[in-house]
């Protein structure tokens, strides 16, 4: 996936590159970890919650981003890194810190392919581990 030219990338995916869509996409691309709606609101101070939500729904519908529930009922979003059509080749484990409430991608721990019974078609895979991140553990032990 080439995300340096976001307008061209959106057009390739069949979406008109509006200012709001580009702002949300840029925020997700530049983030160091998955972002929830509140994170995006903080980052994109000029956009209201409903505008961000509409953009996220469109990006999800077109498989440009993935979402996963972090274990507390909050959706987190990240870019789909599949080339061409979105598939599950970039499925990975996520870690949710119960202390700082941040989610982290564990891309070095890939999910093995799942053999589902005949007739079942997966559209998303989510695996979240809950615990404490190294920074919070260090703060707590001081």
Description:
The protein has 142 residues and is an alpha+beta fold. Helices cover 33% and strands 21% of the residues. It is built from 5 helices and 6 strands, in the order H-H-E-H-H-E-E-E-E-E-H. A hairpin with a 5-residue loop joins strand 2 (65-69) and strand 3. The mean pLDDT is 85.
Q: Categorize the overall geometry.
A: globular
Measure the end-to-end span: 42 Å
Strand order of the largest sheet: 1-3-2
The chain-level mean pLDDT equals 85
- How can the largest sheet be summarized? 3 strands, antiparallel
Question: Total helix count?
Answer: 5
Order of secondary-structure elements? HHEHHEEEEEH
Uncertain stretches of 5 or more adjacent residues: none
Number of strands: 6
The portion of residues forming beta strands comes to 15-25%
Whole-angstrom Rg: 16 Å
In helices, the fraction of residues equals 25-40%
Structural class: alpha+beta
Question: What's the topology here?
Answer:
Elements: H1 6-12, H2 19-30, E1 35-36, H3 37-43, H4 49-61, E2 65-69, E3 75-79, E4 92-97, E5 103-110, E6 128-131, H5 134-141
Parallel strand pairs: 4-6
Antiparallel strand pairs: 1-3, 2-3, 4-5
List keywords for this structure.
142 residues; 5 helices; three-stranded mixed β-sheet; 33% helix; three-stranded antiparallel β-sheet
């Amino acid at each position: 996936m080439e995300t340096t030219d976001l307008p061209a990338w959106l057009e390739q995916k069949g979406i008109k590159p509006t200012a709001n869509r580009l702002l949300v996409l840029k925020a997700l691309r530049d983030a160091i970890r998955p972002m929830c709606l509140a994170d995006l609101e903080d980052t994109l101070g000029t956009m209201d919650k409903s505008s961000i939500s509409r953009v996220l729904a469109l990006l999800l519908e077109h498989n440009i981003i993935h979402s996963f529930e972090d274990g507390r009922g909050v959706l987190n979003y990240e870019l789909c890194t599949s080339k061409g059509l979105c598939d599950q080749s970039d499925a990975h484990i996520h870690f949710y810190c119960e202390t700082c409430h941040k989610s982290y991608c564990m891309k070095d721990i890939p999910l093995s392919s799942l053999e589902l019974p005949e007739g079942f078609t997966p559209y998303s895979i989510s695996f979240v581990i809950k615990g404490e991140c190294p920074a919070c553990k260090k703060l707590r032990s001081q």
